[in-house]
Amino acid sequence: MKHSLIIGRYGELGLKSPRVRGRFERKLSSNIKASFNCEIDINQARIFIFPENFDEALSKLHKIFGIVSFSPAISTHSTFENIEKTLSEYTDKLVEEGLIDSETPFAIRCRRVGTHDFSSQELAAFAGAVVVRKLNCPVDLTNPKLEIFIEVRDDETYIFHEKIKGPGGLPLETQGKLVSLISSGIDSPVATYMMMKRGCEIIALHFDNEPFTKPKSREKFNSIIEKLEEYSSGVSLRTRIVNYGEYLQKCKNNAPDKMTCILCKSGMYQIAGMLASAMNALGVVDGNSVGQVASQTLPNILATRDNLDVPVLSPLIGMDKVEIEKIAKKIGTYDISKEDDGGCNAVPRYPETKADIERVRFAKEDMNQEEELNKVFESIFVNNIKQ
Ligand SMILES: Nc1ncnc2c1ncn2[C@@H]1O[C@H](COP(=O)(O)OP(=O)(O)OP(=O)(O)O)[C@@H](O)[C@H]1O
Q: Which atom of ligand 1 approaches the CA of 316 most closely?
């Protein structure tokens, strides 16, 4: 069907003060324009999008945060005569596409903004009669098989039949910047997606544990980033890789074996915190969910965050694996994360599951953690070309 525009809707933005809403709308508009070629007009809480290529626009709008739903539509002038003509042509197209025939129960849903010499009910009755005259199909306002929406906004009237779900959330880059700890597992890409959905700009930080892990882990991280970039239109998703193998070896040499994973994670948070300060990010994101695996017991999670001076956000903390996997599948990172990468050989046979903060502090001092991490941190910028 040939459409003349796409009408986008935003949810939460509508609740903001006019000044904040204006800023968010401008950001949303520039994020959409960075995704595909189009003209945009935002008014009365609607985003009127005029794309060069409709198919491209429809596939990309699924991945732009801030859009709650969107409808390909045709427009006409707000007179009964014009509405009748356009609705009649629109109905022909619906018939051609097999969406309505003489048996299809349908409903007209009208909305009206502005001053007109007809009410929404009068227009709905008029428009319903146009369709019935053409097809003789039954009107069913309670349980229709097809709904035809007519939105009258001042002099323009829009006709459409679909409300396609968008990702919702807030436009990217309307909230602060965060450093996100992304492994090659299922959870951290989902945690990152959730913070992006809340409008946060992300610096993705990955620790490459070679020789304790295989190159496959880093390849998976790269593929995960490519997937997340699909949701990042208008805002660059920056990445930083840390060569962490040498530090891990020091943990193994100079601390009790049981402590390896605790010292590994606590080092990750410290480095992430330093990176956050260096890049003006406001916090750190991780993919922890309480009790999900032996390493994610509450004492371990808390002990690994000891002595951090940036907040850690864990959007999955209260979710179960099934819920997390469902999102991973929806956003397309699940299949990448599921690929076998051989895991991490640094994990001891009996890892600590009830970390005691005092003992963790001793272990950190014994291995000179602070000094070792400073060396690791300095190497980040040398190792990363992509800004
Ligand atoms: N190699 C890594 N690089 C960056 N962050 C990591 C790395 N390994 C773990 N993390 C962070 O620590 C969190 C907990 O790690 P843990 O080892 O328990 O989980 P995982 O199974 O490796 O990964 P995920 O939680 O992403 O499924 C991860 O969610 C992630 O935020």
A: 29
Nearest CA owner, ligand 1 atom 6: 183
Architecture of domain 177-383: 3-Layer(aba) Sandwich (3.40)
CA of 261 to the centre of ligand 1 (A): 11
Each residue of 109-168: pLDDT tens digit? Answer: 999 999 999 999 999 999 999 999 999 999 999 999 999 999 999 999 999 999 999 999
Atom 8 in ligand 1: which residue has the minimum CA distance? 183
Report residue 291's pLDDT band, with 50, 70 and 90 as the boundaries.
confident
User: What residue's CA is closest to ligand 1, atom 17?
Assistant: 295
The stretch 253-263 carries a mean pLDDT of 94
Q: Parse the chain into domains and list their residue ranges.
A: 5-165, 177-383
SS3 annotation, the chain? CCCCEEEEECCHHHHCCHHHHHHHHHHHHHHHHHHCCEEEEEECCEEEEEECCHHHHHHHHCCCCCCCEEEEEEEEECCHHHHHHHHHHHHHHHHHCCCCCCCCCEEEEEEEECCCCCCHHHHHHHHHHHHHHHHCCCECCCCCCEEEEEEEECCEEEEECCCEECCCCCCCCCCCEEEEECCCCCHHHHHHHHHHHCCCEEEEEEEECCCCCCHHHHHHHHHHHHHHHCCCCCCCCEEEEEECHHHHHHHHHHCCHHHHHHHHHHHHHHHHHHHHHHCCCCEEECCCCCCCCHHHCHHHHHHHCCCCCCCEECCCCCCCHHHHHHHHHHHCCHHHHHCCCCCCCCCCCCCCCCCCHHHHHHHHHHCCHHHHHHHHHHHHHHHCCCC
Whether 206 lines ligand 1, by a CB cut-off of 6 Å, is yes
Under CATH, which number does the domain 5-165 receive?
Answer: 3.30.2130.30
286 within ligand 1 shell (Cβ under 6 A): yes
Same fold, 5-165 and 177-383: no
pLDDT of amino acid 295:
79
Which ligand 1 atom is the nearest neighbour of the CA of 242?
3
ipTM above 0.95, yes or no: yes
Ligand 1 atom at minimal distance to the Cα of residue 208: 1
333 lines ligand 1 (CB under 6 A): no
Does position 44 have pLDDT exceeding 90, yes or no?
no
